[in-house]
């Protein structure tokens, strides 16, 4: 289950960093756009529609450290609300609804195609010294899709289409940005040659993001509900 996967990410992050240190150049496998899953790119992409959080799935954690503060955050596909240990249940429900609604409002805005394009433009300008949405030979589009379950992102340079897996929607920003940047580079370099990774290394949290996704995938595959 995803809940178990999330708990193990920290452990696998360190294991993945160790593994990454032994991989170099074009021999380094891509966890972003697995070449074995080309059929997903050929299939018609299914547009992502943001789903509001089901309040019944929210995990409420009582914390001795939370004397007065109540916080809500995403733990990958899970939403967690921390409350003071002694807070009455009747008071918790109202806070959960308010805070989760705020999270949903924020995430729904960030999932819009307009903001996604703005995010990609900033990465392109900052790390590639150009705005690929203007300089690429054909118009560039970027969107979330729901039919990519064995890869995190994909790019078709011929038509300028970049697709991101909806599974990343609630992952940390540095992970999403790393995948976006990875696919932006594919507009310039179609393979995973040394030249590709030379550009990829310009993104300072590239290896950290790869380790995160590697640990997430490993945990999902190997941890089941107790």
TrEMBL record:
Higher taxonomy: unclassified sequences, metagenomes, ecological metagenomes
Residue ranges constituting the YgjP-like metallopeptidase domain according to the UniProt record: 72-214
InterPro entries membership: UTP_pyrophosphatase-like, YgjP-like_metallopeptidase
Coiled coil: none
Protein name (Swiss-Prot/TrEMBL): Unannotated protein
